[in-house]
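2024-03-11 09:14:02 DEBUG pipeline.ingest accepted 1 chain
2024-03-11 09:14:02 DEBUG pipeline.ingest length=252
2024-03-11 09:14:03 DEBUG pipeline.predict start
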Amino acid sequence: MDATHSPSSDLPLTPLFLWPGGWLMVMPAIDNQPHQHVAASLLVGLHQPIRVTVDGRPRQERVVLVPPDMPQSLNSRGPVAVIHLDPDEPAWRALARLGGLDEKQQRWCVEQIAALVQTGSEARARQFLHGLRRLAEPLPLDPRIADACGLMRAGEMAPSMDALAEHANLSASRFRHLFREQLGVSLKRYQLHLKCQRALALWRSGMNFTELAVAAGFYDQPHLNRTLRAMFDSLPSRYARGLPVQVVHLKE
């Protein structure tokens, strides 16, 4: 995402809170172009409604939930919280069961994010994540797909389709179909997404982006750039030129 400064806002940046199933950050303002990432997006305007276009349809609301792998763009001249939730993350699967947030739940989101901005604490971020997960009983996930996701998150290199299918005791074609059916995204897109997550986890200010790309599992820096542009409308150089970002690994 391309984060821009809001001249009238003195809102401090929160750290980039990162955990295995997603990330959370509050920024002073955002203006990005249409992009399509694997994670669901929970977008929260702190002071005013935000303008979001989802699959070509404009919306102007205080809290917007965008399903996984859905084309979107976001414009907010005021502070906005961006929460990315992987398709296997229990918080997304709880929100998916609800089908959206009612007014009371939206107010709770705004209040929780406002409290997080005031403290910037890991405890507050963790409290918000756990609160999302408790909003509803998460949609069930086939244990074979959940297990495959765990294997991919745990390994430095992505297992092949054949290896994952064999581990699940399924044919490759059946595994591919079940994966998309359960998560709403293809296995290839999900694996690219995990590489992006790994790049976020490894990123440090001043880091050589060629080294970062290889460490995260991309072929080279252009491959990383293309993926980030398509999934997030961003390039690593934008983060390098912007405000310093502290990455906090959230202990769940």
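2024-03-11 09:14:41 DEBUG pipeline.report Residues 1-9, 235-241 have pLDDT under 50 and may be disordered.
2024-03-11 09:14:41 DEBUG pipeline.predict end
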